[in-house]
Design brief:
The chain is of the alpha/beta class. It has 7 helices and 9 strands. Helix 4 packs parallel to helix 5 (155-166).
């Protein structure tokens, strides 16, 4: 009887574990987890778990500062995700900020190489029975004459092209985040980014004016946009979102 009970509990535990869905985040510093010495800088990926019950959906943030589709592959980070994937998992893919840097060969990926890398990510994710979700890069805070301007060149359109070609869900973070920044305005949007005066925070004694990376309020806004995208794209994940 004890052996039977033990086997039953073991089976129940196995089923419970296999039923959990993991969302893997593959991306750059706008999404990545931050260390204590960089606070209050916050990646939007750090804010996503709160929208899901971790017993049902676990967010595994593999994004890393300074990475592109090229360096993510070259460093083995993408393969590590592939090896971890289980059927029913999701991979949210958001790159672009570093792919576009022609002066940095270690990360630069031309628009065509960027497309090829994204297609590789999609193919390998699907082979594992998981679902890829493409994301355009989030907007930088750059205003000219009080009008927000785009900074990512051809890369957001490249993501959209791949999404159409491969019939993949797309969350257009560039457009969504641009709308948020425009709503806050040139001055108001500062509170979303890593903007600190000298002496305001011991991690940045000389102050900082960063128009790419977020503080908690900005990361929270971006995570909400991801949740909106999950609902809009009618992903299966939406049934696990907290009310």
């Amino acid at each position: 009887m004890r052996l039977l009970a033990s086997l039953t509990l073991s089976l129940m535990f196995s089923v419970a574990v296999s039923a959990q869905i993991t969302i893997f985040l593959a991306g750059d510093s706008t999404c990545a987890n931050k260390t204590a010495d960089k606070r209050p800088e916050t990646g939007w990926g750090e804010m996503l778990q709160q929208y899901f019950d971790p017993a049902k959906v676990l967010v595994d943030n593999r994004a890393q500062n300074g990475r592109s589709t090229k360096s993510f592959v070259d460093e083995g980070r993408w393969q590590a995700i592939v090896m971890s994937l289980q059927k029913g998992d999701y991979v949210f893919i958001e790159f672009g900020h570093n792919d576009e840097k022609k002066d940095k060969p270690a990360v630069y990926a031309s628009p065509e190489d960027y497309k090829a890398n994204l297609i590789r990510f999609i193919t390998q994710t699907r082979l594992k029975g998981a679902t890829p979700v493409l994301m355009t890069p989030v907007s930088r805070r750059k205003f000219e004459n009080d009008i927000l301007v785009k900074t990512h060149g051809m890369y957001p359109d490249a993501v959209k092209w791949v999404a159409r070609k491969e019939s993949v869900a797309l969350i257009d973070m560039e457009s969504k985040s641009a709308a948020i920044l425009a709503r806050y305005g040139k001055d108001g949007s500062r509170r979303l980014f890593l903007q600190l005066k000298p002496g305001e925070n011991p991690n940045y004694p000389n102050g900082v004016e960063d128009n790419t990376h977020f503080r908690p309020a900005g990361a929270e806004e971006m995570a909400k946009l991801v949740v909106d995208g999950i609902r809009e794209d009618k992903l299966g994940l939406r049934k696990f979102l907290k009310k």
